[in-house]
Amino acid sequence: MPLAKFETMLKRTMGLDVQSIGRPMLERALHERRDKSGVDDLDAYWLLLQMSEQEQLHLIESVIVPETWFFRNREAFNEMAQLQPQRPISAGQPLRILSLPCSTGEEPYSIAMALLDIGMPPQHFRIDAIDISAQSLAVARQAVYGKNSFRGNSLAFRDHYFALNEQGYALSETVRQQVRFIQSNLFAPTLLYGEAPYDIVFCRNLLIYFDRTTQHQAVTILTQRLAPEGLLFVGPAESALMMQHALTPIKAPMAFAFRQGAPKQEPVKPAAAPIAAFAPQPPAPLRPAPRAAAARAAPSRIRPAAELPVLPQTTLATVQLLADQGQLSEAASLCEQLIQRHGPSAAAYYLMGVIHDAADRKQAAADCYRKALYLEPAHAGAMTHLAALLQTQGDTAGARLLQQRARRSAENNPS
């Protein structure tokens, strides 16, 4: 039986682009749910889906593979705790935070622990956590976790906020009471109806499962829920998409954070600071060009007329600024010239990959990420971005290997 109708249903109900998980995974989920439902074939299962909203939720849970742990990408939580909100915070006007999707609860609970750690009174913040999966929310509400939820070497928080029992590590009530769990999804018409805007929104590693049109719809919904000057945290592979909306990147490496509001239009300056969304790791300095003085004396001999003018002081920071302003073609041309004139570097190829990613040139982006990893095998940004691309292309095994490699690299080189 053709899978198109099932794909359409999943896209309508949860925004899922089946290409992001691969059709084999969908087929496995359909046959698993068909067998558990006791129907004879997929035609009968399709009829069951039309009559049972509960079965639709079961199918959705079968195609969701939650992968989360406490303080995943710790830089985001550190930055969130340090950035001051743009309005007074008090018990009467608490900091409002949204975690969507929240999966089994590790992310919203990490947010709560990070704020408690800096001394913020519990009555001064409130976290709403949303997920489509009732099964994941049941785990989150129980708040008892196994060893897989604790990764890396920085686990002092586990001793402070958890107690070990027969079932696992039970989270303290102090943290649990800060989070309200809600079953819904980003595209539900009644999502957070009547709720005030949020000062901080975490929506990480969800947009990679949507097609480009749905991604933009999702970002629009998120920004509508975000307070003026509010903060939005996304996943590493989603940062380039934010550049196409009225959001300003926060200069914080590896946080992938954006503030509500379009960037201020300023003249491009060659010595501009790197933009965090395009440089999770500071770019490596470019090697001086041979005969730099001669090049400055006779620029016409090194610059074809069709190319952009390249100043001797040009660095990757200029390319990043152009990309941040949405001038992707200009940024790509300038980045290519830098590589030709100064030689290859992991930072340059990584940035070129992010630019191609933002322009929806997936194969070109993947090629650049691979070149960056060839030059710098431990480049975290290239690994996470390439893993996301492989996932969207159905190469789940390759994506998983890169994710594991990036995790090992982070554990061996903690910030």
Question: How is this structure best described in words?
Answer:
Helices cover 46% and strands 11% of the residues. With 415 residues, it is an alpha/beta fold. The protein folds into 3 domains: 4-63, no CATH class; 74-260, Rossmann fold (3-Layer(aba) Sandwich); 276-289 and 303-412, Serine Threonine Protein Phosphatase 5, Tetratricopeptide repeat, CATH 1.25.40.10. It has a 7-stranded mixed β-sheet with strand order 6-2-1-7-8-10-9. Strands 3-5-4 form a 3-stranded antiparallel β-sheet. Strand 1 (95-99), helix 6 (106-117) and strand 2 (125-131) form a beta-alpha-beta unit. Helix 13 runs antiparallel to helix 14 (328-342). The longest helix has 17 residues, at 396-412. The protein is globular, with a radius of gyration of 23 Å. The N and C termini lie far apart (50 Å).
Descriptive labels:
Serine Threonine Protein Phosphatase 5, Tetratricopeptide repeat, Rossmann fold, globular, seven-stranded mixed β-sheet, 10 strands, alpha/beta, 3 domains, 415 residues
Treating each run of at least 4 consecutive H or I residues as one helix, how many helices?
18
Strand % is 5-15%
User: Could you say which structural class the secondary elements and strand pairing correspond to?
Assistant: alpha/beta
Overall CATH architecture of the largest domain: 3-Layer(aba) Sandwich
Succession of helices and strands: HHHHHEHEHEHEEHEEHEHEEHHHHHHH
Largest sheet: 7 strands, mixed
Determine the fraction of residues in helical runs and give it as a percent range.
40-55%
CATH class of the largest domain: Alpha Beta
